[in-house]
Write a structure and sequence with these properties.
Pfam families: Acetyltransf_10
CATH architecture of one domain: 3-Layer(aba) Sandwich
Strand content: 25-35%
Organism: Chelativorans composti
Number of strands: 7
Keywords: Acyltransferase, Transferase
Structural class: alpha+beta
Shape: globular
Enzyme class: transferase
CATH topology of one domain: Aminopeptidase
GO molecular function, one term: acyltransferase activity
Radius of gyration: 15 Å
Order of helices and strands: EHHHEEEHEHEE
Largest sheet: 7 strands, mixed
CATH superfamily of one domain: Gcn5-related N-acetyltransferase (GNAT)
């Protein structure tokens, strides 16, 4: 398994991966029908195609070399010193094998000179919160999942100070 930059050819496999992983991660929290809607709108092929072409971003996949994409991550630089990790997913059957760590390390190192990486996690996703805490992220606040008006699904905002480096 290796982490590499995503390509147009990966998008159908990434979409299928997101459908599977998001159902496993959020199905019990948000409901399976809501997850299908989120995947079909927020993770449609056209949306991910825009990620590929987004300036100041990194879109990577974990590739097993046999046509399977078992993980993905996407981050975008927001300011001169801050990057936002908006997606990091690993196929449930491949979790706890280092893929999430490898994907996270790749996006953390992809932005020279940037000082902070931020992200949001649904508070009920305690395994994800613990994963990021083990990687050096600290909780900096609370909010609502996908800016929901009724805030039924609170989130935690997390941040990590990155090691800065220059060419």
């Amino acid at each position: 398994m290796w982490v590499r930059t995503a390509s147009e050819a990966d998008l159908p496999a990434v979409h299928a991966l997101l459908a599977e992983t998001m159902q496993a991660a959020y199905g019990k929290i948000l409901g399976p029908i809501s997850v299908v809607g989120i995947v079909s709108s927020m993770h449609a092929i056209d949306v991910m195609r825009a990620w590929l072409n987004s300036p100041f971003s990194e879109f990577v996949v974990a590739d097993d070399g046999n046509g399977s994409v078992d993980g993905m991550a996407f981050a975008r630089q927001l300011t001169d010193d801050t990057v936002r990790l908006s997606h990091l997913y690993v196929r449930p059957s491949e979790q706890v094998q280092g893929l999430g760590t490898a994907l996270l390390a790749e996006v953390e190192s992809a932005f020279p000179g940037v000082r902070y990486m931020t992200l949001d996690v649904i508070k009920d996703q305690s395994a994800a919160v613990r994963f990021f805490e083990r990687k050096g992220y600290v909780v900096t606040g609370e909010g609502c999942a996908w800016k929901a008006a009724n805030c039924e699904k609170p989130t935690v905002s997390m941040q990590k100070t990155l090691e800065t480096w220059a060419f």
